[in-house]
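Internal tracking record. Fields below are filled automatically when a chain is submitted to the structure queue. Please do not edit lines marked as system-generated. If the sequence contains nonstandard residues, flag them in the REMARKS field before resubmitting.
Queue: standard
Priority: normal
Entity type: single polypeptide chain
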Amino acid sequence: MIHPRIDELLENVDSRYALVIVAAKRARQINDYHHQLGEGIGFEQAPPPLVESRSKNYLTMALEEISEGKLNYKYSR
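SYSTEM-GENERATED OUTPUT FOLLOWS
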């Protein structure tokens, strides 16, 4: 079973396309954050995860953040 569920995630984003883009970008930020920890670099470029997660998977962490409404985004044209 997938957690969080897709229908729950779609309540916080405009479309499935937006969900994929926002989750992928946030997962890369979380990955960068964890690499910065090992190198002793500050958190300017990549903020830490916004939720406590049992998962070690960065994409799952990003989806949990979206599910809990911790991420906001807007389109730039």
